[in-house]
């Protein structure tokens, strides 16, 4: 994947420009199932939200909860929503990736959770899916 750095840079720029059209949405993070950030874009004054999501381990927790739900016969969740005092976090499974959208409290959760339905957004995520090895989807952290 010799063109991986250019793909990653182009995707970061796309997500940064996309943020300006999403009222109440502060950051977008694409990571693997272990929570390793691959691309993040955030409004400059709210970049701390991405750091907090990564430091708190929200992505691997989402993946572990999905794995446990699936083992219990409930099926794997496509989306999880968490509300905190200073932010709302929407996580979406997009194998082998997890898309995390961080918004302000009271943001439009429907908008955040429907980003993968947006054609331009979905095309950009698909670009990254094509260059990330599929075996990352099997690298979930075991409890």
TrEMBL record:
GO terms for cellular component: Ragulator complex. Pfam families: MAPKK1_Int. SUPFAM superfamilies: Roadblock/LC7 domain. One of its GO terms (biological process) is positive regulation of TOR signaling. InterPro entries: LAMTOR3. It comes from the Eukaryota. Belongs to the LAMTOR3 family. This is GAF domain-containing protein.
